[in-house]
Amino acid sequence: MPKPLTFITGNANKLREVKEILEQSGISVVSQNVDLPELQGDPTDISVEKCRLASEQVDGPVITEDTSLCYNALHGLPGPYIKWFLKSLGHEGLNRILAGYEDKSADAMCIFAFCPGKGQSVVPFVGKCPGRIVPARGPNTFGWDPIFQPDGFAETFAEMGAATKNRISHRSRSLGMLREYLQSHPELFA
Predict the structure, then answer these.
(1) Neighbours of 115 (CB within 10 A)
(2) What's the CATH number where 66 sits?
(3) Looking at the 3D structure of the chain, how many domains does it have?
(4) Which label site among 105, 108, 110, 120 has the fewest CB atoms less than 10 Å from its CB?
(5) What pTM was estimated for this model as a whole?
(6) 9 among the known binding-site residues?
């Protein structure tokens, strides 16, 4: 029986999305809430270090996830600090940040990092979804989803059904790369 993949999260919404995307491929996912430090720096470096730290506390393969919302007018900010910007400013404040800029484009970015076990190398998977920042629309149940409208769609992430969002989102793109990697390395779960 293969080992389950431990997703380090306390966020029920993220866990649900990850399970919906990975378990359809036969990859068993469990969650564990591990207290990790809030790191600063480049999003990929943050993800790799976060996963390395988590692997030291969990027996078996682990994944961590870090999400960024990168405003192009601000050269990628708020980026990995979006959680704190949202908490302090709310959706309206996140829109006001761009008030002086014509460019409202942004990239939703998700980086899943995988480590097969303690002391082993961490592999990051970067998924991006281009879009733009809009006034909040839709349910206010999942982070900054109400203000992000992906390119080619008239709806924000919050307005979309789960099936559509899980097909096109930054998270699904990152998980798609992770899924392909895991399926091509079954020995990591022996």
Answers:
(1) 24
(2) 3.90.950.10
(3) 1
(4) 120
(5) 0.90
(6) yes
